[in-house]
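Friendly challenge for the regulars: who can give me the structure tokens for this chain first? No prize, just bragging rights.
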Amino acid sequence: MLKKAVVQTAALFVLASAGTAYAYDVSLKPFTDVTNEDWFQNEVYSLSALGIIDGYSDLTYKPEATLTREAFIKLLMNANQVEVASASVSGVAGAPVDVERGRWSYPFVSAAYERKWLDFMLDSQGKFHPEHAITREEVASIVGKALLDAQTAESRNHWTLQGWHDEKEKRNFADSDALNQNLLSFAYFAVNQGIMEGDQTGFHPKQSLTRKEAAAIIYRVIQTEVDTRELDTVGFYAINSYPAINHMPLLDQVTFGWSHLKYEAPGNAQLETATTEYRIPTGWEEVVQTANAANIQKNLMVYYGEKNLKDFLKDEPAQKAFIQSLKGVLTDARYGFTGVTIDFEGLMDATSAPDYSQFLKALKAAIPTYPLTVTVQPDYYYKGYDLKEISALADTVVLMAYDFTHNDSKLPSAPLPLVNDAVKRTLAIVPKEKLVLGISKQANQWITANGVAELYNPEIEAVEKRLATPGVNQSMSLPYFLREISFQDDRGSHDIYYEDTASVDKKVWLAKYYGLKGISLWYMGNYTESDWALFNPK
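First reply, four minutes later:
Bragging rights claimed.
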């Protein structure tokens, strides 16, 4: 089943021109010298999506090129999300004598220097030689020092006294004697943590590090943190979500998309639960009982996306009537709602921001014991959300980092580099402890016939069936990290970008990287069994 997509005119902001010169300040082009056959492809594109590594202006990555000392330090600091502009552990600013304040790498080198990660790399005159190619031994030692710093004192002492000896004996590198004996405890810790490895001929400590190796190493450093982090998982039970009811035990919260704001005349508004797709369904009792049995939080979602939302936010009598109506449903013991999620979409005019904040204040005052969740759209062109005020009022903020879809350029809904950029922009204002990354399970399909392309949003079930059909070409589209599907039929040529299990998993990885509060799944009925397997307890 195909649904003709409606693309917001605001999405025209996406393009700087009618071509593919995107106005977003992120890389949305693939590297010409990193292919599907390259073992480091995932690492390069993942770090590129995070903005940690860059390519060159000719769209190459140059994987075989070597990396300088200062370039690697920058990668490591960025991967650790160190605020280099003000980075200071000891409180005493400083850097090696040959890294001056005006040098581009100064903030990064200074941050590492203050942490005493670089002491072994300084010569007798205190020089760092930032332009020198960094060696594998130096990388292992820097990374090992950084990782050891994160351990407990007891763990560090054990490793320094005995652990590295055991690791050295276990690895038995053919060229272990070539390693600097003063650095063994650090270098072997990087090996122990799976960050670096050797081959049948040895560890090659004096060999210069290549850009492809650097990507793999930095990715593994990040993964050591990602693997320790947990996320709250919120499922939106809306529209056709009954098939997913048995997956509620995998959630920390279920948000019921069972209501919307009804505002048709000045001074008159109410919570509507009986019409449109956002309504309390027949058989709701089973759904609530399932959530209760899973012992998870239950939010009521209130949706509104009509153009007169800005008028409602200036209509105080209508707001008062609506809040009273909402309170009546929210406190109805039959449902047992434990919180409310306000999903008011489409506020593009900055003049609406104070009105929306004032409405949320009034709502919060009326239901002080119910946690408030507020969904927001990325701030590129939705200016009617004062993130600072919303963050102060809300217990949770859900960032709907999707619907970047643009018809003419065939930009899909949620390319990972744009999701990352939206998260970073939001984190500049909203604390990570409050921020939830919204993930929308969807597909964007362009059908081209007679030189004209039309955009559709096919049903997930139809896309899954198509994937199993002979004659369909599919691959992971990079840097988007979305499944790309193409085929031909009597309607024309078809190009689909699909949020499959691998791309959902990558967005979960991104949320963990930033240490966000959680993720939300819109909507539960669209997620496949392989998607749900991502959230099964390990």
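Residues 232-535 form a domain with the TIM Barrel fold (CATH 3.20.20.80). The radius of gyration is 26 Å. Your move, everyone else.
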